[in-house]
Amino acid sequence: MGAQRSSPALDRLLAGPSRRDRITHLEHVPARQGRRASWPEWVPELLVRRLAAAGVEAPWEHQAAAAEHARAGRSVILATGTASGKSLGYLMPAVAAVHDESVRDGGTVLYLSPTKALAADQLRTLRALKLTRLRAATYDGDTRHEDRQWVRQHANYVLTNPDMLHRSILPSHARWSSFLRRLRYVVVDEAHGYRGVFGSHVAQILRRLRRICARYHASPVFVLASATVSAPAVAAERLTGLPAVAVDTDASPRGPATFALWEPPLTDLRGERGAPVRRTATAEAADLLADLVAEGVQTLAFVRSRRGAESVALGAKRALEEAAPALAAQVAAYRAGFLPEERRALEASLRNGTITGLASTNALELGVDVSGLDAVLVCGWPGTRASLWQQAGRAGRTGRAALAVLIARDDPLDTYLVHHPEAIFGRPVEATVLDPDNPYVLEPHLCAAASELPLTDADAELFGPSTAALLPDLVRRGLLRRRPNGWFWTRRDRACDLADIRGSGGPPVQVVETATGRLLGTVDEASAHTTVHEGAVYLHQGESFLVHALDLDDSAALVEAADPDYSTTARDVTDITVVERLRGTPWGEATLNYGTVEVTRQVVAYQMRRLQTGEMLGEKPLDLPPRTLRTRAVWWTLSPDQLEDLGDMDLGGAAHAAEHASIGLLPLFATCDRWDIGGVSTALHPDTGLLTVFVYDGHEGGAGFAERGYADARAWLTATREAIASCECEAGCPSCIQSPKCGNGNDPLDKRGALLMLAELLRNAPA
């Protein structure tokens, strides 16, 4: 355990002596003094006065530096910590542009955020400044139809998201001509969130925006705001296609913080194959949230899934109803899928203190300014160090001492991290992984671009080197038509509908209560098979429902109110075929490979587990259609001679165990989540003729995660072996080789065989 410094909030959590053993490490983050800069002379005096009235005496050094770069016409990325005031870095040049008297009606600003909540929060901040020339408005799915025309014609600071830019603004650019002609700045907020397939789509949307702006003789400067990321200038250039300057030295002050790594205890229960079961992270988080609320500590609990957020809030409420019934109403859940008015009400309640404890998905990770928080609970590793620090930074925003607790799930990566704090603290955050040249991403955006303005040969430089090779195929498939002066979209349907930028896979599935016809929320189509299948437990605002039927044709899930004492988890089976081997490296007789694969997955059953303990209650079959995915994978093989040298073992079980553990550890080396990737292992694969273990990207065309695994394979697989070896169980458990989404019921698995197999694989791995 690290230095035993504590905090008042942590002392409250440790009031029970049995809890002290659950902390595996304490990290103390010291307070930091701030460094001010002078107001740039070009900042409007009215803005300076308004900010002074709000308590902002002068900008921090990083804010002023970013603003000066933007004002000078250089695209810039401001990559500093949570609560460092990144918004002032782009607010100064943005307001100056709006007040620019050299341009008729002044310049305009387009602000992009990944969530509606963040845009709404920014709008409140802008309106509070009471600048008469600043006509700010949101333009998103919640904007009333009658208000949209006013925004197009009169707003000079438009706050929107990549989805609306892709589906509404760019396809209708002629209606936005006045705004686009005067566009001076494009602000890309929370830029670290644009990674993987989503980030690749956004990169192409921004290229389309640049192309349309050029049509109106505008060349806006891009200002990106991000949590700390590795190589921020490189990340900004990949996202925008433009060179960018990085400002990444944080000059803002910060109060002291205590960061605890927390491992729930083992229970007396046994899971699959008799493996020991830890108390669930959600149950642990619910108890800790209830304790902190009882002590008046305003706390935000980040939970990985919608269901998990609901479960934590419900568990905390139940605990408070027993100990302090009056406080139960001060706990709530917040997640995507809520109706707009529900989200806004929850945000307001958190700000004014009506809510003391909130369990949220990462919908509240991204920048919503919530001051006064004292503690943050992170329920399960959030996928990247960048996200971890972003979430932890939500506490202590007013300069007071703060507490952050990472609660480990029963999962190989979480277990590894809480016992290897050096993998979290003192290490740089990850590089952003995205691939704008992915043909499954680029093709629909070429079609969308052609529908906006005919494509020409000159556009290949903007959209990337793959463009020239893809255009003939788009013509052959009837998506584009070639003419002497370019490529044209001639179909009646909307080209922008070809690109599913968030990977939802189709129209969202509406969740409807059968008895009342009430719309409870939505689930993206790609998640429907696993979250609202028949028999699934669905949670909404603390209420639980059972799914009576899933109608995929009508995109509807019918649910009935219920109060089961269990949760449900879908199970699937997977087959994989090698389409093309793109790279390969011999590791002695073993080989490491990277290439294109085709994956067929089918949800075949679901498990029921008791809520508080995770105890398995049973499994029921499902009849859902299979799905096929063409993607990228990294895979490794062992030769027959190597297997013979390993001696007698269950080859399939050893490979299966190594596959599970390697999937669990890859997120440490790539900016992904274990749910973004999948795996298949077999003692004899028909395409390789050898024992083979695959790990693949769970997105059409690939997302760059498997490629990162191929590049860092030695470090990745070494950490995988270490995670298995250091686990205290005898034959394998969820903390090392068992997977919560295994389609084979975690059978067979051979922990000892996996250790021997990985050691043999790594024996001749190149340094």
Automatic annotation (TrEMBL):
Keyword Lyase on entry: no
InterPro entries: DEAD/DEAH_box_helicase_dom, Helicase_ATP-bd, Helicase_C-like, Helicase_put_actinobac, HRQ1_WHD, MZB, P-loop_NTPase
GO molecular function terms listed in the Swiss-Prot or TrEMBL record: helicase activity
The Helicase ATP-binding domain, residue ranges: 67-247
CDD domains in alphabetical order: DEXHc_Hrq1-like, SF2_C_Hrq
UniProt KW Hydrolase keyword: yes
Gene3D superfamilies: P-loop containing nucleotide triphosphate hydrolases (3.40.50.300)
This protein's name: DEAD/DEAH box helicase
